[in-house]
Amino acid sequence: MKVGIVGAGSIGCYVGAVMQLAGAEVHFLLRPRMAETLSVHGLRVSDLRGLDRQLGAESLHLHTEAAAMTGLDCLFVTVKSADTAAVAEQLAGVLNGSETIVSLQNGVGNAAQLRQSLPNQPVLAGMIAFNVLNCGEGHFHAGTDGAIMVEECAAMDELASLFAATQTPFEWQPDMVAVQWSKLLLNLNNPINALSGLPLKDELSQRAYRRCLALLQTEALQAIRAAGLPLLKLTAVPPSVLPWVLRSPDWLFRKVAQPMLRMDPLARSSMWEDLELGRRTEVDWLNGEVADLARRHGLVATANERVRELIKAAEQGGRRDFSGEELLTLLRA
Known about the structure:
This protein has helices at residues 10-21, 32-41, 84-92, 110-117, 158-164, 176-187, 189-196, 200-204, 207-227, 242-247, 250-256, 270-276, 283-296, 302-315, 324-332, and strands spanning 2-6, 25-29, 43-47, 52-55, 61-63, 74-77, 100-104, 123-128, 132-136, 139-142, 148-151, 170-173. It is an alpha/beta fold. The strands form two sheets. An eight-stranded mixed β-sheet has the order 5-2-1-6-7-8-11-12, with helices on both faces. The protein starts with a strand and ends with a helix. 47% of the residues are buried.
């Protein structure tokens, strides 16, 4: 199978490497800086389950022009949500209609945007439930548990076997709307983690930070219920009771939600990594999406609006070392 990775950052490099290890011919469309890094160091992937494999630089198909994506069997779009429109425009000029596109991105609207911009291409919604950290020198580490989920498509059955080879969890899903909104609920921790300056495990082990997340999720759940949107259980805890579990004392949280803390001690959110690298974050496609949904149904999502403001300030060099108590006070104000 010939696969393209459109936007080979942390997620794209990891997913592409896993498929190449299974025998796929993978072509990476990436920025010149990343192409230079991989051409020197090759591509290494690891995870918390023990995977640790290296692909030599000579085995990688690295490209900086979208024309290289023409005629491949499947393209995984892994760019940040802010770049979806621009990438779709680039692809529109080179694809021939035979390539199946999988949107493997955060947020809930990227697949729809790709369908609108590329009406002649089959587009599948997808989601990745684990975090991948760029460790430098071509090494990408999956530090949390979770699966890759893709909208059911019989024509793409071969994809499942490509992930099975490295025991990377993969699932076909009949209802990606439920998956995407359920994942968005979990992704509301991204700004909390980014503003804490802590690894995910340390942050989630502190009740004050979890109470911040509970505030954001409570607002999101209210909006989701008002909109009549479906949800799916992606963790050991059903979505409807997540805020209650997060607000629980540390000893009870560790007992009830132990699988939520099964992660690499150094794992971080993608939003933390974006801020570290001086990139625009996806806060508008996460907390902004919640605020917009609430507004459309006569509700307010004050905490989500405030955390969005804090992340916007952090993008301009503002604080990223808030204690849990400081952050909770700001979100409640």
